[in-house]
Amino acid sequence: MKVLVVGGGGREHAICWKLAQSPQVTGLWCAPGNGGIADVAQCVDIAATDVEAMVRWAGENAMDFVVVAPDDPLALGMVDAMEASGIPAFGPTADAAIIEASKVFSKGLMENYHIPTARYRAFTQMEQALAYVEEQGAPIVVKADGLALGKGVVVAQSVQEARQAVREMMADKKFGQAGTRLVIEECMTGPEVTVLAFCDGEHLCCMPSSQDHKRAYDGNRGPNTGGMGAISPSPNYTPEVARQCMEQIFLPTVAALKAEGRPFRGVLYFGLMLTAEGPKVVEYNARFGDPECQAVLSLLESDLLDILLACRNGTLDRLDIRWKQQASCCLVLASGGYPLSYQKGYPISGLERAGETAVVFHAGTRRDEQGRLVTNGGRVLGVTATGADLDAAIDAAYAAAAHISFQDMHFRRDIGRV
Ligand code: AMP
Ligand code: GLY
Fold it and tell me: Strand pairing of 265-275 and 192-200?
C-alpha cells in the first residue's frame, strides 16, 4: 500500500517510523515531513493545513491510505475531503474532531452525558466572564474555546491573573478567533495521566498510559509548552484507576459521540486528572499526543497499519493488539528560549551515537544547503528509549541524549521523576 502521513513533527516521525516497519507498506510519503522523517519517508512540500493541495496530491499520486495526524487539518475536515474524493483516510471527520477543536462543545458533551470533569461555565461576553472570575475566586482556569497550539489555557493563581487572561483572550485576541468564546472552570488538583485510544466509531482500544511534562523547566515550572517529555506507562495509572476510567469516561465518551451523530474514528486522547474524587477529564484531543505518541508507539509490537485501517473500517474489535511489556521515555531536546522566542538553523551533532541505544525522533529539523541537519523549530528532537522498567528507560534516554548537542540546547533533567 502507498501511504501518506500528514504532518511534520516528532509525532509524525514516530508514526512514519512504525509504518515503515509494516510489510504491507510499499511506499511511504509525509507532507510536509522534516529532516529526520526524510530518512524513512519521502517528504512532500505541502503544508499540513492545505486541504485542497493535499487531496489533489494524494489523488494524483494514487495513495491507498492517508493518515492525518495533527489537530488543524482534522478540524479543517481533511479526512472528510479525502474520503469524499475516494481516498481512504485515518482520523476523525471534522464533526468528530470538534471534541478537541471546541472546548465549549466538549464541556457540553461531558455535562450532558455525565462524564466527570471540572465544573465550568462558557462565555461570549467579556464583562460576564470577568464577573464570574470575581465571584468564583482563585485558583481558576481560563481556556480559549478553539485551537491555540496547546497554549490557550491559563491556570490562574490569583483573580488578577485570571482577569488578565480573560482580557488577553477576549479583548486583545491573543489567540485570534479561538478566544472569542471562553470556558472558565474549576481548578482541579492531582496527578495527570494521558490515555490514547484507538477508536473505530463504535469500539475503543486503549494504548498503554503515558504522562506528558508540559512545563518548560524542571520541577514543573515555567510556561506551558507542547510537551517537554513523556513516559509510558504512567506509574499513577493503576488497574483500579483504569477500570474507573473505562466505565465512567472512555466508554461513555465513545457512546456519546456516536449518539450525537459524530462517531469517532481515529485516536482519541484523554487528558485525565486523578483527583481526590476520582479521575476527571482535563481535555480531549482528537489525535495522538506529542510527545506521548513517541513513547507509546515505541512499545507497540503489532503492525500499526493494520490498526489504523481497522479504525477507519470499523473492525477494531477483530484485532488483537500487542504491546511490549516494557517502559519507555521520550526526552525532548528544545531550542533555547522555547516556547517563547528562539533561533533556528544551528547544526546538530551526535545523532549517530545517540541512535545506537535510542530512537531519535525529529520534531523540528531540516537539512540545510550543505546537507547538514540543523534545528528548525522549538522542539527539535525526541530521544526515545525503552527499558525493562521506567528507571531503565529514563536512564537510557538521558544517556543517549548526552551524545547530542546544538547551540542553546535546552531539556528538562527531571522527565519521569516528577
Ligand atoms: P489543556 O490544554 O486543556 O490540556 O490544559 C493544559 C494544562 O493546563 C493541563 O495539562 C493541566 O495541567 C492544566 N489544566 C487544564 N485544565 C485544568 C483544570 N481544570 N484544573 C487544573 N489544571 C488544569
Ligand atoms: N502533549 C499534549 C498534546 O499533544 O496535546
Answer: antiparallel
Which cell is 169 given?
A: 483572550
The atom of ligand 1 lying closest to the CA of 152 is 2
Mean pLDDT of 236-255: 98
pLDDT at 241: 98
- Alpha helices by DSSP H, 20-93: 51-60, 71-75, 78-84
Mean pLDDT of the chain: 96
For residue 280, the cross-strand partners are 273
Q: Give the residue, 87 or 172, on which the prediction is more confident.
A: 87
Region label for 187, one of left (φ > 0), alpha (ψ between -120 and 50) or beta (otherwise) = beta
Predicted pLDDT at 176: 81
Q: CB–CB of 58/388 below 8 Å?
A: no
Residue nearest to atom 3 of ligand 1 (CA): 283
Sign of CA dihedral 356, 361, 363, 369: positive
Count of Cβ atoms closer than 10 Å to residue 256 Cβ:
18
Helix axes 10-19, 304-313, angle to 10 degrees: 100
Residue 120 in contact with residue 132, Cβ under 8 Å?
no
- Are 9 and 379 spatial neighbours (Cβ–Cβ below 8 Å)? yes
214 lines ligand 1 (CB under 6 A): yes
- The one-letter code for the residue type at 196 is L
The residue written with cell numbers 493503576 in the block is 238
Of the candidates 2, 11, 6, the residue with the CA atom closest to the CA atom of residue 55: 6
pLDDT of the residue at 207: 98
Helices (H), 273-389: 292-297, 304-313, 351-355
pLDDT score at 149: 66
**Closest approach atom of ligand 2 to CA 230:** 1
pTM: 0.96
Task: Look at the block and give the residue holding cell 531550542.
Answer: 335
Pinpoint the alpha helices (H) of 314-359: 351-355
C-alpha cell at 24: 504491507
Among all ligands shown, which has an atom nearest to the Cα of 189?
A: 1
